[in-house]
Amino acid sequence: MNAAQAAAFLRALAAANPAPETELHYRDPFTLLVAVVLSAQTTDAAVNKCTPALFDAAPDASSMAALGAEGIAPYIRRIGLWQAKARNVAALAQQLVEKHGGQVPADRAALEALPGVGRKTANVVLNVAFGENAMAVDTHIFRLGNRTGLAPGKTPREVEDGLVRKCPPDLLRDAHHWLILHGRYICKARMPECWRCPAVAHCNYRDKVLAPPVGR
Fold first, then answer.
1. Same domain, residue pair 33 and 75
2. Has residue 210 been placed in a domain?
């Protein structure tokens, strides 16, 4: 997919969803960071069921650090990998207190130095909390980038770099949301619902499903 076709693809998604937002519930950069860390290999919906009570008990880094892993764990037991995530959230909160005055840094290197925070998580926080043109590539976007021809790549970083190169600058910040929502609800892993896709005319996927299954 060349740059012009990629731009047409993204503008079609933009027209269908002019004001995309993350589906994670958060209150500020700190709660966003925690929610994104908790969302690894877990649905946003599952995370959203856990975080209101957690954020009421520990709304900032100092109170989260005071809870510690043992105090955090009861709030997040319903999500996957909760034990490791409890340890990471407690440790990152402590590090924020000790190194950043309790504030979430608007800096990629500082974010990625926090326990449990990789490039994808850092990109989400930079994009959503700080308004940067960052592209976070999760499993949905990785699949979509390869399936559609929008940004093929063998690794998430290759897909990320391809998307950044091809995305018009005015669309880059919101493109992460358009693509993740598109991959989550339309361009799904097992059966992409191409008949509902607003960008189907610009997609290079060879096995398009242009009509819903009988009885659906």
1. yes
2. no
Residue type, 57: A
pLDDT in tens, 197-206: 999 999 999 9
Does residue 75 sit in the same domain as residue 159? no
pLDDT digits (tens, 9 = 90+) for 35-71: 999 998 889 999 999 999 999 999 999 999 999 999 9
The number of domains in the chain is 2
Residue 216 lies in a domain: no
Identify whether 161 is a catalytic site residue. no
pTM over 0.70: yes
43 plus 113 within the same structural domain: yes
Which one is catalytic: 60, 85, 120, 174?
Answer: 120
Domain final position from 67, 97, 128: 128
CA dist 164 → 65, 132, 161, 176, 206 (Å): 36, 12, 5, 10, 24
pLDDT by residue (tens digit) across 14-43? 999 999 999 999 999 999 999 999 998 889
Amino acid code (one letter) for 178: W
pLDDT at 216 over 70: no
Catalytic residue among 85, 138, 166, 174: 138
Best CA proximity match to 91, nearest among 83, 167, 8: 83
Where in the sequence is the domain holding 73, given as residue range(s)?
29-128
